[in-house]
Amino acid sequence: AVLDAVIARNPAKAERAILVLIDGAGEDIETVLNSRRKLPSLAVPAPRLKGRSPAPAVR
User: Fold this and answer.
1) pTM above 0.85, yes or no
2) What confidence score (pLDDT) does residue 53 get?
3) How far apart are CA 4 and CA 17, in angstroms?
4) How far apart are CA 13 and CA 5, in angstroms?
5) How far apart are CA 50 and CA 47, in angstroms?
6) What is the pLDDT of residue 39?
7) In Å, what is the CA distance from 26 to each residue of 9, 20, 21, 22, 46?
8) Exposure pattern of 28-44 as b/e (b: 16+ CB <10 Å)?
9) CB within 8 A of 16, min separation 6: which ones?
């Protein structure tokens, strides 16, 4: 929506779309903080992600 408003050169619509994104991000943050799940620690490096096993070669 933001990109569409920028392309259309409609700053008011772009501003409204950005405010909706910001409000949504705030709600997401509140949801995570209220979930009582343990948050990741920044004191230690993140564990490495497991890569996908390669797909078998098609011959």
Assistant:
1) no
2) 75
3) 10
4) 6
5) 9
6) 77
7) 27, 10, 9, 6, 24
8) eeeeeeeeeeeeeeeee
9) 5
